[in-house]
């Protein structure tokens, strides 16, 4: 089996002080850097939204961050403005080793569709291209780390398992947002999909 480390959204806006800060989001950076040395392939994902993105509460008059809304593709959490293309907050955490990355997958760039997963946008059908990249490189065994456990890590891990990849999530190198029990639901959903939780 050929292995890859997938590092999900370790960006300034998801770390303390950022627009959508995850508690202790920065605490996982040294461990992720160390883990990169053990993998023959390293792939980073980067949340990358245009200003005025439809997942931002600010794009919906009267809405507040963390409200729910209904999109054409289903329910969607409304977030604070975050990871705007080219902004400081969209950059990787300054201590994250980015030189080891073979590929950076940007996602969330369609103004009308959010994209938690590294494989499909939130309509669950528009691909990012990562599946084809991995398959053509013969990579079939994925370890995932990063932010946030219950959103982008969760959706990426479940999609990868459904696509037939062997998937391990290193929870010690992830941190979650935990909205209304989303962390517990994510852990259960990942286990059910056949993701190995470590
Ligand atoms: C994420 C919410 C909105 C994540 C991205 O990286 O988990 N969460 N955009
Ligand atoms: Zn986002």
Brief overview:
With 198 residues, the chain is of the alpha/beta class.
Question: Can you tag this structure with a few keywords?
Answer:
single chain, about 200 residues, alpha/beta, six-stranded parallel β-sheet, two-stranded antiparallel ribbon, binds pyrazine-2-carboxylic acid, binds zinc ion, EC 3.5.1.19, metal ion binding, pyridine nucleotide biosynthesis, Isochorismatase-like_dom
The CA-CA distance between the termini, in Å, is 19 Å
Task: Report the sheet-strand fraction.
Answer: 15-25%
Oligomer: single chain
Q: In which range does the helix fraction lie?
A: 10-25%
Count of alpha and pi helical runs: 4
- Residue windows where pLDDT falls under 50 for at least 5 positions: none
Average pLDDT reading = 98
Shape: globular
User: Strand order of the main beta sheet, please?
Assistant: 5-2-1-6-7-8
What is the ordering of alpha helices and beta strands? EHEEEEHEHEHE
Q: What is the number of beta strands? A: 8
Largest sheet: 6 strands, parallel
InterPro entries: Isochorismatase-like_dom (IPR000868), Isochorismatase-like_sf (IPR036380), Isochorismatase_Nicotinamidase (IPR052347)
Pathway: Cofactor biosynthesis; nicotinate biosynthesis; nicotinate from nicotinamide: step 1/1
EC number: 3.5.1.19
Domain Isochorismatase-like: 4-197
């Amino acid at each position: 089996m050929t292995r890859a480390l997938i590092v999900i959204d370790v960006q300034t806006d998801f770390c303390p002080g950022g627009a959508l800060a995850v508690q202790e989001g920065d605490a996982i950076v040294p461990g992720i850097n160390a883990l990169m040395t053990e993998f023959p392939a390293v792939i980073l994902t980067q949340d990358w939204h245009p200003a005025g993105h439809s997942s931002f509460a600010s794009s919906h008059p009267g809405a507040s961050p963390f409200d729910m809304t209904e999109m054409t593709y289903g329910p969607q959490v409304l977030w604070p403005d975050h990871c705007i293309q080219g902004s400081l907050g969209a950059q990787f955490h300054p201590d994250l080793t980015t030189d080891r990355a073979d590929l950076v997958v940007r996602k969330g760039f369609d103004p009308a569709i959010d994209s938690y997963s590294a494989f499909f946008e939130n309509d669950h059908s528009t691909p990012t291209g990562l599946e084809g990249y991995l398959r053509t490189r013969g990579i079939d065994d994925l370890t995932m780390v990063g932010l946030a456990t219950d959103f982008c890590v969760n959706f990426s891990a479940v999609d990868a398992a459904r696509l037939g990849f062997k998937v391990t999530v290193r929870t010690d190198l992830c941190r979650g947002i935990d909205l209304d029990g989303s962390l517990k639901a994510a852990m259960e959903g990942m286990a059910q999909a056949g993701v190995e939780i470590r």
